[in-house]
DNA sequence: ATGAAAGCGCTAACAC
DNA sequence: GTGTTAGCGCTTTCAT
């Protein structure tokens, strides 16, 4: 009899149709009692509790979360609003969010703004999309009733003008915001840029060129600040003729490098503000008949997947994308619980990855000839 | 007065606290009437309808979707269960799903199984994860009450043993399933592989090597079938000494190519079953002092992002990932509506992208010297 | 310790 | 054409 019961238990499948009411009847208790044991919200007599547990297993009961959400006015769902899931940092950030959120029994409602299609990289047009953003936020908040929103940017820019009358936590990941009503978690630009040039200094480089990103953008400015700090701290002067303004794209890396190559005295190293421009620079160097890193060292930023398939493998800076996601989720969750830590702008450290495109400045001596 | 009212309308913010009841009171009608106009579900007198519309705008009312879901037993949400969002095909597939689903006013509940962490590419262990998968499905279905599930695979393998007692549509994207209870939408492997070797034939190649993926996997077998078909249709024999078994990873592409290079007569072209192995092969060729495509043509599969940063740019096969996502969503939506088209296994065509690693076999004549 | 019952916000009979 | 109202499945107050 007991054995039979066990077997019966096994073959039962979860079913959407069984409710708390039926479980209650099966266990011979009230629905309230069932609710108490499910949520551990009140003491119930051990034997009753067991009867309930058995009834749950026997019936394959799974609580209807939407009914619960309606009742408790809390969905245990966080809305993840991404500018574009195809944007290179986005999946890794979502990965981090997902990992953290799952631990707390929250779910993710994903909304993809699909900005890459409509923008074609015209960053300036982004602000035109504010309405679309605010509409999505409204839907998430007042329609789906998510408990918090994580906004995942792509462009590491300052987000402003987002609905400020919102009554739920909003944390911005990757991008930043001047608006102190929101939390933002982003990565270190300045210190790591300084570290990158220090790495070049250590290798003996002094004539260091930099290919910047779009000059007015926040990351370009912050990276530049780090670079300048490293120079001034080392008492070395940065030759302004050696800084060329790119636009984050491959082609600009290529053309900036061409310009650099036409100078009277060549740089011995170049810091490109992202990997795309770094590849462009490498190609330009190669086409000019020079070699990386023997003639010119190059260092990128982002550690894109392709960095490791380049020849030689690209020395670059890795952003802890997953860490950003985790911390963003952590922050959202804490704010929901009201244990907000206060600090509104969090920064995750970045990391320099030394690969093969940077080498010591030694004229006419190949890397392979070094000890 | 009118003008003032307009201004007042403008500054009103959406608010989560206003319910249909308050709108009804504001408009001087019943909640039923409000519901009728919101959902266009019954005729209402034009002036009443207008009063309701005004009241909605004035109050900033947004329907509480969780209440509605509970009532109509339908969440307008589709659960997207991905094996790992970091898997290369996944974001593009989600992109396609998102685009399609948004049009029909559905939302996406994202669940990331994060298999990459736990698997380390031990495909065989995947089956051990069945429990985890089924648990996630149960949660989505019976907890969150999604209306359908799209399972996004990474490994293009046959999915079996998934909960078969489910009462909601389940469509498998990218992977396939023998289980005819589910729809699956995947991409073309066989025809496009045949087309790739035909491309090589057209270029005059006859000694064509192939570096396969893990031999027992479904895509490896299907691609091989396409290759063999192309050979037999052309009346050319495939030298079995020229097919080497790789494992999808870079290193295997490299080592297989090394073996190939040690043969008495070299192949003039090699078809690697993915881009990773293609790069490995290219590197081996380069290290052996030979040149791509002058000495050996190479062709990959997947059109990974890095394909375009290689030297020369990789000729490869592009899978229409976004199309897979769109069709998967379309299928799920149709099944929800009961307008299921019947066909359980859908296949999206792939596309050959001719870039610079394939060239005509002409000994001692460089590509650039051709007309 | 337990249960009866109200009510979360909405929709859809059903009655008028 | 419009309103009344029951009820979706759950939690939680309030009695007991």
What is this structure's SSE topology?
Two copies of one chain form a homodimer.
Chain A: H1 2-11, H2 20-27, H3 31-39, H4 46-59, H5 65-72, E1 77-82, H6 90-103, E2 107-112, H7 115-119, H8 130-143, E3 148-152, E4 170-173, E5 183-187, H9 190-202, E6 208-212, H10 218-234, E7 243-245, H11 250-261, E8 269-272, H12 275-287, E9 297-299, E10 316-318, H13 321-337, E11 345-348, E12 351-353
Parallel strand pairs in A: 1-2, 1-3, 3-4, 4-5, 5-11, 6-7, 6-8, 8-9
Antiparallel strand pairs in A: 10-12
Chain A binds a DNA duplex (16 and 16 nucleotides) through helix 3 and helix 5.
Mean pLDDT of chain A: 89
Number of continuous helical runs of chain A: 13
Number of strands of chain A: 12
Helix content of chain A: 40-55%
Low-confidence stretches of chain A: 1-12, 364-371
Major sheet details of chain A: 6 strands, parallel
Query: In percent terms, what proportion of residues of chain A is strand?
Result: 5-15%
How many domains is the backbone of chain A divided into? 3
CATH class of the largest domain in chain A: Alpha Beta
CATH superfamily of the largest domain in chain A, by name, is Response regulator
- Could you say which overall geometry of chain A the principal axes of the C-alpha atoms support? elongated
Multimeric state of these chains?
A: homodimer
CATH architecture identity of the largest domain in chain A:
3-Layer(aba) Sandwich
CATH topology of the largest domain in chain A: Rossmann fold
Order of helices and strands of chain A: HHHHHEHEHHEEEHEHEHEHEEHEE
- Overall structural class of chain A, as computed from helix and strand content, comes to alpha/beta
Biggest interface, chains and residues, is: A-B, 52 and 52 residues
Q: Span from first to last CA of chain A?
A: 78 Å
